[in-house]
Fold these 2 entries.
Entry 1:
Amino acid sequence: MNLRVVMFAFAASLLLPVASRAEPIDENWHQWRGPDATGVSKTANPPIAWSEEENIKWKVAIQGQGTSTPIIWGNKVFVLTAINTGENDPAIPDPQDQPKTNYFDIKRPNARHEFVVLCLDRNTGKEIWRDIATKKIPHEGAHNDNDFASASPTTDGNQLYCWFGSAGLFCYDLDGNQLWERELGEARVGSSLGEGCSPVVHQDKLVIVRDHNRQGAIEVLDTKTGETLWRKARNEDNAWATPLVVTHSGRTQVVTAASDFVRSYDLDSGDIIWQCSGLTGNVTPCPVVEGDHVICMSGYEGYSAMAIPLTQTGDLSGSEKILWKKNKGTPYVPSPLLYDGLLYYSQSNQSILTCLDSKSGEVVFGPERVGQLSNIYASPVGASDRVYITGRNGVTVVLNRSLKFELIQTNQLDERFDASPAIAGNQLFLRGAEYLYCIEAE
């Protein structure tokens, strides 16, 4: 650990409260896919209908770029962004003068970016605090559909964990005091597509997964100090799937989805409990748990979904112990929504919806074209027996959670939405390319 980390760790020991803040997790949206990492809030009751003129509690411009989902804790909303300062380094050629080095012709920026953490008042949208976590020139570019603030923050109710990938990991208390920071090295993502896997916190441990063109890794840190507890190398190519932490069969497992293997690690030791091949390339959807099984899927250069047992050990590839498999219509970017036994997902990034019985894998309905939506990058969310699906064209459709496709409402905003929605209480939060919306019935 460097001196700065040690100093921050000492500060953390002085600033940390004795016990967690008394905010029930179920009433907040503390991580990217919500309280149970399924996309569902069991307590929320957001609006069904809205527009630019109706049920907008507040709308705030967010400077810079970011597709990370906002998280909500108590009366605070936390969001990350990366701001191009325009301060160029003359030692780095202008992007337009750089040679083509990858398939998408993505160039390295030559301008410094501010990597910013914002805290907004949940009731008004007014800024409570902001911090420039770091200021640097990204070491490589990112795809036009990605950016340098695409990993969602997370909180345990005491501390806020903000992961800017190669730009660093930063821990704050909820009042904006930085407690510690870590640089975990630079990732080299194939074709410079950019980073995006979100951190996951479980009790006193923070999990970071980085799968990319070179030597990837899974790393578990102490939440109080940022010190590495264990680190394991991973030989996976590009993947962006946020890991899932689940306690099952007497062990706390970290399930990571990637192209070669879905793996389960013991959170305490880092030992591999089980692994299973069968997904396609560029794995992005995060796993979800249904009973004794974890469901993993991918949808790039093929389709795949598997319900893998959490009770086993060893290599399960091709095993009859896999509960069910699918090879059609699974998502590329969006993660699935698991809502009381119903599993909703889109085909690739298209507005084609399928619903399965999550226990059996049997089709409940679909594939169903949702004609009001264009491409979908945001992951669906659910609350109050409703399903919310947001397209890149600013449209959000609201469906009944039911055994057939039942459209309730179609809503339009003047934005492009790539970030996944967040829901808490009576509010729905939608982060667009320019604005963050808080939607609440009047």
Entry 2:
Amino acid sequence: MDGPRFLTGQLLLAMPGMTDPRFERAVIAMCNHDEQGALGIGIGHHVAGITLHTLMRQLDLDPGVAPDAPLFMGGPVEQNRGFVVHSEDWEGEGSIDVAGLWRLTSTLDVLRAIGEGRGPRKWLAALGYAGWGAGQLDDELLSNGWFGVPGNDALLFEREVGHRWTAAFASGGIDVRLLSASSGHA
């Protein structure tokens, strides 16, 4: 493929000046990026007013021992659909391996397992996803809309949400204070 390399297993970071306000300071865990398109789960912003327990009760699931964690705004596509990005120590129906770094599951069995205390050790629950058609993300990368850094457990599961964007750029050797919202041409 000409142009940007595939980003599966990386964190995709919105550059300053991103024209779509839904992606301002976005941090997206890239779960698939190939010739057909791309899919990622936003992990940089929480959904206001809804938590895991609220969601589980709406789905008639017992929250059990699950912490009442905030849900993430996974992206603008299918916001009524849930996804769990989680550590590789658990696999269920329809779980997808993401570059040997984490898994993505969108079936209820992962929520049941979390509630019963037998789920993945680390996890994030999100509503919606970020999706791109064939070549769309590649074009956005070439126009400096996004920056990719290697994904890791610390950034994905441990870093405080309000600091993920800055910390992810720092992991790529970039101080966000030095970034400009506009670009020039040589």
